[in-house]
Amino acid sequence: MNGPELKALVSDWRVATLIILILLSVVAIFPHFDSQGNMVSNLQYGLDLQQGSWLQLEFRAEVVGFTTDHPVDEFIANLSKKLDAEVLYIDPTHLEIRKYYSQAELDPIFTAAGGKLTTYQPGVSKSTSEDVKRILENKINTLGTKDAKVNTLVGMNNVARYIRVELAGVDMKQAQNLVGKQGKFEIRVMTTGNQSEHVLFGDAITRVQNPSQSPAGSDKWGVGFTLSDAGAAAFQQVAIKSGATADPEHHELVMLLDNKSVFSAPLSTDLARELQAGSTRDLFASTGSGKTGSDAATNLEIHLRAGALPVDVSIAGSGGVSAPLGERYKMMALLAGIFALITVGLVIYFRYREPSIVLPMVLINASEIIILLGIMSLIKFQLDLPTIAGLIAVVGTGIDQLVVITDEILHEGKVPSPNLYLKRLARALGIIVVAAATVVIAMLPLALMDLSTLKGFAIITILGVLVGIVVTRPAYGKIIMQMLSK
User: Which CATH number fits domain 185-303: 3.30.1360.200, 3.40.630.30, 3.40.50.2000, 3.40.50.261?
Assistant: First the structure.
């Protein structure tokens, strides 16, 4: 191919787009040597390919079905008192008990409370599992741990029994400390100037409610929480001593988590009046209205818990990957990718016996992998064994589609005229789009479901298909026509 022909090929918008994306992907990946001479990049490796630990936690709670002849609120309050546990209403026939009891233990307690136990399922509701996931993610991110994954497995009945935490680059002891550690939560009241006085620590908070609207049905959000008797007495004493009950507007209540302010607001007039008369255990922190207030309430709930989970968990399984083993897996994954490309090249060569066809196919396949790795670098998507399997699947499906284009163009064993070529290319791309849509539809449930081991595979496969039909297939159609016309 001479200079003008090469220039015309590169200047074609389809080929130019492919080249630009490859260059941008290389920049995003940024392969380079570190100070010790090791090859590093911006790729985020998962637990399979580097040192790290994983913990599988089991929720010590249960979701039960029930019936009762009493008012539901009265029944739940009575049941909560007898169980000495938090009991949440899920729907008209199901409750969540945030403490572990066997079914045999619950049967007589339900009867004594005025109801009947109909079904029993260990675990928590989907809503609670999402709260636990959010709390763990927030705690891990706050502590500066990178490359962490928190995944819950929710069944078809919307009950989650397990949650899995993967921490790349963290040993087992540190992983257990991260999951189990609570932050230092403190409430202080402003006195004069910038001075403040200690009121209580987080251990005085006995219960934290889910974000709610107060009054009910309004647009004002907040979080309710309950103090111990000692905490309520200390709160009243400091509020009176500091003058907050006499002048609440100028004495803000400040909440700190690990010495960082997470909430600040003056006492309400009603609360100041109530504290002047006596101690109170039930408090409500208002965070504002609308979505901003709702989001602030969600964050405040996490802070009030100081990283404590709403239900107890036990370690049901654990494991880890050592640094040498991670490096070995990384090398094996690289060799698997190279072997896949070589194998594809050999199969295509035996089919067409023409290097001018084989080379563009293999290079187009390799370019798809580079673009996908660039996307993963930008969005900080972890590269682990399932995603590597997805990349290899992209190589296979990609070659299938390139063969469809090549066979359609060489339908009669010769290069067609430009007009006929465009018609055949359009027909081939139509076939590919239908096949790609089928793959996306098949992978979509895996990408959306909480199956952590398969989600990466599905997402990479879908991205690979989209990159193929939007970028690389049109570019290949132009390149292969130019090569075959020679």
Answer: 3.30.1360.200
